[in-house]
Write a structure and sequence with these properties.
Shape: globular
CATH class of the largest domain: Alpha Beta
Mean pLDDT: 95
Structural class: alpha/beta
Radius of gyration: 23 Å
Bound molecules: pyridoxal-5'-phosphate
Number of domains: 3
CATH architecture of the largest domain: 3-Layer(aba) Sandwich
Helix content: 40-55%
Strand content: 5-15%
CATH topology of the largest domain: Aspartate Aminotransferase, domain 2
Distance between the termini: 4 Å
Number of helices: 16
Largest sheet: 7 strands, mixed
């Protein structure tokens, strides 16, 4: 693969690129339940136009592009008002939930380094339902993640278990509003009391729900307080590229006050180049995402968001009723927003997901972990709302079809073969053997994913992680010619 000697015709390029999309998930059809949160063509056009308008501007230095500083401060201001947050709350625009979470963990770590330097090995307490981004932050920032079980009925954080997990090294507690997997809101008020009682910080991961939950409350859903109105909450993450329908690369990290936020900022005057002062992880960054977010918030407006929320609310209720009516499927927990998870005791859900794929739907399989059985997750987006009945009808057919498949002892075989495998000893041979058991001869994915999911589900988490990392390390290899 080489850079072509002569530049190519742009029409030809765009045509080729359009062709590359052939196998991509078709989210416009409303049959993809996850990944894309779209509020219709018009909002999408607004995002695109605003994005390209500020594509080239660089938010590296807010004093050089005051327009970008303005977008960022106004977007934070609008969200602050939406959450009815106190005057002192501040925040920044980031590239996504993961970056927001990383920054909140860094701010927590560094504020404790300043305040409690005797803590050399800081720990944060995570319900097992907390997003994996916290474990990523822990990994990058050398903070120890302490995983705590949740209720296996409600899938909400167990405050008592979290209290038990507090040690002299604890710096941060985490709760979700709601959790991604099950869509339930952790008991934030109690976590706030726990944090205050032990002089700890509390981050609320409202990445997926922070924007939408206030609308659900206005529609009459029983939404508990989850934000800065709860005493003890010190930081909060909220993604705009989910239920605010902004272009991807848009999230906020908010802090109760500037005193804590100052630990997020990085500056460096010890090199020969320009003075570096970064509020977020990225340094050079496009003005596109923040301009698009500003434009989309203003374009859709409060009434528009409320109307979208109404559709999501009703769609989710219908989905839950449909699952509850099924003899084979059970909801995991009682979802409080627009994310649901359901499992089965009578049929393999990974086969159900494959059967759904055969019928043109993308639904998300989730592996079992910490009391949560293997399940299927749906995130409802506005584009999915008209398709609830069709989805439920095909789900019933998929369950029936999956039940006809012969039982497999794959999970048991895999578990027996690899349970004691030391992840560090995952040689290329063992890797191929594992792929082979999942019916794969190379890193190319087969049509049916059930075997792969079963293998992943059956292995101990550390082995699954090594397997996934090995897979990705094989997948991202440039073409030879
Ligand atoms: C999506 C999500 C994240 C991570 O956000 P990214 O934008 O994918 O980095 C974190 N927490 C929750 C609850 C989420 O739903």
């Amino acid at each position: 693969m080489k850079i072509p000697k002569n530049g190519q015709d742009k029409e030809q390029l765009f045509k080729a690129m359009e062709g590359f999309r052939a196998d991509d998930a078709d989210w416009r059809s409303g049959r993809t339940w996850g990944y894309v949160y779209n509020a219709g063509r018009e909002a999408e056009e607004v995002a695109k136009q605003a994005y390209t308008m500020f594509l080239s501007e660089n938010a590296l230095d807010p004093t050089v592009y005051p327009s970008l500083l303005r977008f960022e401060n106004e977007v934070v201001g609008m969200v602050k008002a939406h959450l009815e947050a106190d005057e002192g709350v501040v925040g920044n625009f980031t590239s996504g939930g993961t970056e927001s979470i990383m920054l909140a963990v860094k701010a927590a770590r560094d504020s404790f380094r300043a305040r409690r330097p005797e803590i050399k090995e800081p720990e944060m307490i995570l319900p097992v339902t907390a997003h994996a981004a916290f474990q990523k932050a822990a990994h990058y920032l050398d903070v120890k993640p302490v995983l705590v079980p949740v209720s296996d009925q409600t899938f909400k954080a167990d405050v008592g278990a979290m209290e038990q997990a507090i040690t002299a090294n604890t710096i941060l507690l985490v709760g979700s509003a709601p959790s991604y997997a099950h869509g339930v809101v952790d008991p934030i008020e109690q976590l706030g009391q726990l944090a205050l009682g032990h002089d700890l910080l509390l981050h609320v991961d409202a990445c997926i729900g922070g924007f939408l939950l206030p609308y659900f409350r206005r529609l009459g859903a029983p939404v508990p307080d989850f934000d800065f109105r709860v005493p003890g909450v010190t930081s909060l993450s909220l993604d705009l590229h989910k239920y605010a329908y902004c272009a991807k690369g848009a999230s906020l990290v908010l802090y109760r006050d500037r005193e804590l936020r100052k630990h997020q900022v990085f500056s460096c005057a010890r090199w020969t180049g320009y003075s570096v002062v970064n509020s977020t992880v990225q340094s050079s960054k496009s003005g596109g995402p923040m301009a698009a977010a500003w434009a989309v918030l203003n374009f859709i407006g409060d009434d528009g968001y409320l109307e979208h929320a109404r559709g999501l609310y009703e769609a989710t209720q219908k989905l839950v009723a449909g699952i509850d009516a099924s003899e084979d499927l059970q909801m995991l927990g009682h979802p409080e927003m627009s994310l649901i998870a359901f499992a089965s005791d009578t049929v393999n859900v990974f086969h159900v997901a494959d059967e759904m794929a055969q019928r043109g739907w993308y639904v998300q399989p989730q592996l079992g972990f910490g009391g949560s059985k293997p399940n299927i997750h749906l995130s409802v987006a506005p584009s999915n709302v008209p398709w609830v009945e069709d989805l439920l009808a095909d789900l019933a057919k998929s369950v029936a079809a999956a039940k006809q498949l012969p039982p497999s002892d794959l999970a048991a075989t895999v578990a027996a073969t690899f349970t004691n495998l030391d992840p560090a000893a995952l040689t290329p041979e063992i890797f191929s053997q594992m792929l082979g058991m999942a019916g794969m001869t190379s890193v190319a994915l087969p049509d049916r994913m059930a075997d792969i999911n079963e293998v992943l589900d059956a292995l101990p988490a550390e082995v699954t992680e090594t397997l996934l990392s090995t897979f990705i390390n094989e997948l991202f290899v440039p073409p030879k010619d």
